[in-house]
Write a structure and sequence with these properties.
The chain is of the alpha/beta class and 237 residues long. It has 6 helices and 13 strands. Arabinose-5-phosphate binds next to helix 2 and helix 4.
Length: 237
Amino acid sequence: MPEAADRDREKMAAARAAALRVRPGTRVALGTGTTATLAIRAIAERFPHGEGIEAVASSRATEALARSLGWPLRSLEEISSFDLMVDGADEVTERLDVTKGHGGALFREKLLARLTREVVLVVDSSKMVDRLGARAAIPVEVVPFAQPVVRRALVDRGLRPDLRRGPDGRPWLTDNANELLDVRPPAPLADPARLDAELRALPGVVDTGLFVGLVHRVIVGHADGSVEERVAPGKPA
Ligand code: A5P
């Protein structure tokens, strides 16, 4: 695991490389989190006047950031497909399956990723894992009324769900006013697509932080400023 200062340099290197993929007029979906924030700032530095870039944000936090940078944001009413999404991740495998949602924005992030031609994730090297569920819990967004029922169903499947709470001890709410269960599997996942489908089939589950087959490219930063780009199997380089 890299030291915090190295991790910051790694994130910055990845963020700068992702910003180079944006062109004037690109329709871009903006992710959420510390690394996505660096990438958004790097894009704004490259295009201080917007240059026709049209963006939709995946969270209120990103919306506030984009507005503070003078970025005219669009809604899904106005644009519903994107050339590029730039976002972070919590875990990334060799196949570019990922876990996201530590920051709680997983539903909107996954929706935007599904509407995007090229999903590019920016990460530091600590995020690379052999299997999902190895180092991060899997966030699952749940309708509050159904949360106790979903939680019991997860326990029955041998999973360990923890209700995410805010500093006041109350359930933490997503931008969609839903609750989050941080779910730990008994062992790292051999088949994340199957678990994703099983969880999404439970009434009350809005979505999970498992992104399987949705990501095209992952940019891993290095502390010396260089980056390594990985392309998902079967996706164009
Ligand atoms: C937000 O909900 C998440 O999906 C983030 O993109 C993810 O947690 C990575 O965040 P950091 O870049 O802050 O590690």
